[in-house]
Amino acid sequence: MIRTFRSVFGFYLMLAVRAPRARAFALLTFLPAVLAVVFRLSFPARSVEVLGVFSDILVVFYLQFLLIILALFYGTSVCSEEIEGKTLAYLTTRPLSKSGIILGKTAAYALLSAAIVLISLAVSFFVMNAGRLSAGEAAGTYLRYGGVLLLGIAAYTAFFTFLGVLLRKAVIIGLAFGFGWESILQYFPGSTQRFSIAHYLKSLLPFTPKAQGFSLLTFRLEPTSDAMSLVALVLITGVFLALACLVFRFKEYISEE
Amino acid sequence: MTAVICTKSLSRWYGNVLGLNDVSLDIEPGITGLLGPNGAGKSTFMKLVSGQMKPSSGRTSVFGERVWNNPPIFRRLGFCPEQDAFHEGVTGWEFVKGLLELQGFSSREAADRAVRALEFVEMISDKDRRIRSYSRGMRQRVKIAQSLAHDPDLLILDEPLNGLDPLGKRKIIRLIKDFPKAGRTVLVSSHVLPEIEAMTSRIVLIHQGRILAEGDIHYIRDLIEAHPHVISVECSDPRRLAGILVREEDIARLQFGADGRTVVFETHARDKVFSRLPRLFVENGIAVESITSPDDNLQSVFDYLVGK
Q1: Whole-model pTM above 0.95?
Q2: Would A132 be classed as within a structural domain?
Q3: How many CA atoms lie within 13 Å of B210's alpha carbon, on the beta-carbon side?
Q4: Dihedral over alpha carbons A42, A47, A53, A58 (to 10 degrees)
């Protein structure tokens, strides 16, 4: 399976980097970075609080929009693009383990998503925080935000890969999940919000003192501990990837063509 | 000789539709042509023996092993799908090399093998062009290159001549005929008899999911020639042409078409009559506008064979 993983990962990373879709997603993902630059250039002397609120908005944009969009379109396409493009036969008539195919392709797409998001986050974060945080503080906070986004990419991509392997119209269900279920449930009181991936991601975010006022990131959040959030996100990723591999191993896709 | 592909009571349903019905077949090394009209079950059979589908009932084995969910067997198997489908963003060489790496070859060996395979299909001069810029014939040859680049013992080609011009067909027929050296096996499908005939003399006739006949081309030809073949000739003087044709042997029923310009006749010796017709037209000065064969397709032959 490791050999399959490596060869599938390499092949699909090359294809994914060259695909027009990657350029479109990179442009979309760099939108907040551009906004951050424009904001800082237009209002260089704004108060620390205003900058903090704008940073919050950017993080919400990354966490609750970009992450979901990237994971949704890359995750669901792991299987569906092979069926729709009628290229599945090139994979299923090779000496490749089916689990290796799913894991290798998902990893290639997740890596590309992570690279796009982390570079964009680095630009927008350091532009917004130039002059506000010390170099050490800025690096530490960026790493924390970056780590949370990486965990988010892994969990959402795993979930959407599973949806794509299981269902034919996975994008529609995925959109409902990403922008319906996830958006609403995280604001439910009590333990209900723990049924969303966003809850664990937000629980891991670093919160600055200014966020004690209104913040989209902390609104109604009843955070889970860091350790539990980490375990939950790793479990979500592992379970959905395992389920995706299992379904792909036994389901017949060729008849859907 | 030992059978490479062996199926026993193999059936496959798509919901309520029967795709393949109780097929028992042994395919030995060499080239075997799977011949049948569209929708006959050729692709279903090929997908079952190449492990892309599970049988609904019965069993199939390749090299004595089951195929479904048995990845190691694909080291010995090459498959060329019917669909004109590719990962479009790459060049022909990158496509074949990438698939060879998936086959388990190192990057260097995959690169060398990809070059050799593209040379074999005469695509080496275009190897660095993006696949999306290829013509239909070039795409077909790249598809064949990926299926044989790893030197499989069994090559399965689903309608490899579809959509090609006559020159492209000739090239691919020659490639296929060159492949089965040293005991290798090729299973190739088509719905056009002369195409299959140009590649092999060993034919399996499939229709409505069932094997109607299998054997040497001459046996199949005999079956087909027992079936009266209809030929229609449109010309300026149909009455004179009819007068000439009735004197010819091998011409059975003869009648005039509804347009008054056509002579329609039946023959049991299709090839003989077709070879004699031009001489008849020239010797008798008949200006022919068109010659068509309304049932010059396998469907009518199959209808005849199944007794419709």
Answers
A1: no
A2: yes
A3: 7
A4: 40
Cα-based distances in Å from A170 to A64, B25, B64:
19, 39, 39
Number of domain units in chain A? 1
C-alpha to C-alpha distances, B135 to A135, B86, B98, B116, B139, nearest whole angstrom? 57, 13, 21, 21, 6
A-chain residues within 8 Å CB-CB of B94? 14
- Among B14, B16, B52, pick the best mutation site for testing chain A contact (most A Cβ within 10 A): B52
Answer whether A183 touches B (CB < 8 Å): no
Q: Would residue A255 count as lying in a domain?
A: no
Overall average pLDDT of the A181-192 stretch: 82
Site from A83, A90, A249 to mutate, B interface, most B CB atoms within 10 angstroms? A90
Residue A129 within a domain = yes
Q: CB under 8 Å, gap of 24 or more: what pairs does B198-204 form?
A: B198/B173, B199/B31, B199/B33, B199/B173, B200/B30, B200/B31, B200/B32, B200/B33, B202/B30, B202/B31, B202/B32, B202/B33, B203/B32, B203/B33, B203/B35, B204/B25, B204/B27, B204/B32, B204/B33, B204/B34, B204/B35
- Check residue A209 and give its pLDDT: 45
The Cα–Cα gap between A96 and A98 comes to 6
Instruction: Give whole-number Cα distances, A234 to A56, A60, A152, A238, B179, in Å.
Output: 25, 21, 10, 6, 50
Measured between CA atoms, the residue of chain B closest to residue A17 is: B89
Cβ separation of A255 and B53 shorter than 8 Å?
A: yes
In this prediction, residue A212 carries a pLDDT of 53
- For residue A256, tell me if it sits in a domain: no
A80 close to A238: Cβ distance less than 8 angstroms: no
Q: Minimal Cα–Cα distance from A154 to chain B, Å?
A: 24
Judge whether B62 and B39 are in contact, CB under 8 Å: no
Residue A161 has pLDDT above 90, yes or no: yes
pLDDT tens, residue by residue, A98-108? 999 999 999 99
